[in-house]
Amino acid sequence: MLELRMVKNNIGHRFGQIRRLHRMLVDAQLGDIGLSPGQPPVIMLLHEMSGCTHNELAHAMDIRPATLTVMLTRMERAGWVERKGDQRDHRISRIFSTEKGEQAYEFLRRVSDENERLMLSNLPPEDILVLNRCIVQMTANMQRELARILEDKQQKIKKA
Predict the structure, then answer these.
(1) What angle in degrees, to the nearest 10, is found between the helix axes of 54-61 and 65-77?
(2) Cα–Cα dist 102/92, whole Å
(3) pTM of the predicted model as reported, rounded to 2 decimal places
(4) 41 vs 47: CA distance, rounded Å
(5) Handedness of CA 5, 139, 21, 129 (dihedral sign)
(6) Calpha distance 140→27 (Å, rounded)
(7) Is the separation of the CB atoms in 46 and 101 below 8 Å?
(8) What is the strand order of the sheet 81-85 is part of?
(9) CA-closest candidate to residue 112, choices 25, 5, 19
(10) Cα→Cα distances 105→58, 78, 87, 116, Å
(11) Is it the case that residue 117 has pLDDT exceeding 90?
(12) How far apart are the C-alpha atoms of 96 and 79, rounded to whole Å?
């Protein structure tokens, strides 16, 4: 019983709980809008990166280009995005939100703002600042360790 309590009080477990609850909340809020779970980040990023290339968007989302291709094809069929050939280099296509996509962006922005307020409600401002600093530091710690592990793997491959 003690071990289960330790797991439930583990910070990684708590982050997992928050992530799951956030996903469930967003899914419930999206309701019948017609976006599947992975598509809102595309809408949000295209608002900032309108006209970006496929590879630029995949990099910003930290997903493989092939995964993005499938997602964009579905979103294009549903009228959320459109791809247009680059005027100077016809080998490149650029991705844009449609009017429907921009309307979805406004809705998603409101939902995101509401959820941010909800998550931080009842927390004093000084605690929010500390929480943010801690999350930034934990992210940096994990990125550094991941980079170290990937570098070690590359070194082992080179030696083999």
Answers:
(1) 110
(2) 23
(3) 0.76
(4) 10
(5) positive
(6) 29
(7) yes
(8) 52-53, 93-97, 81-85
(9) 25
(10) 19, 15, 26, 16
(11) yes
(12) 11
Rg (CA), the chain: 20
Residues 137, 134: Cα–Cα separation, whole Å: 5
Residue showing tokens 């608002």: 47
Which tokens hold the place of 14?
Answer: 């708590």
Helix (H, G, I), strand (E, B) or coil at 9: coil
Neighbours of 43 (CB within 10 A): 23
Q: Any bridge partners for residue 97, and if so which?
A: 81
Q: Are 38 and 62 in contact (CB under 8 A)?
A: no
Which one-letter amino acid corresponds to residue 55?
N
The Cα–Cα gap between 158 and 144 comes to 21
Q: Residue 129 has which token pair?
A: 């600042």
pLDDT tens-place string over residues 34-92: 888 789 999 999 999 999 999 999 999 999 999 999 999 999 999 999 999 988 988 88
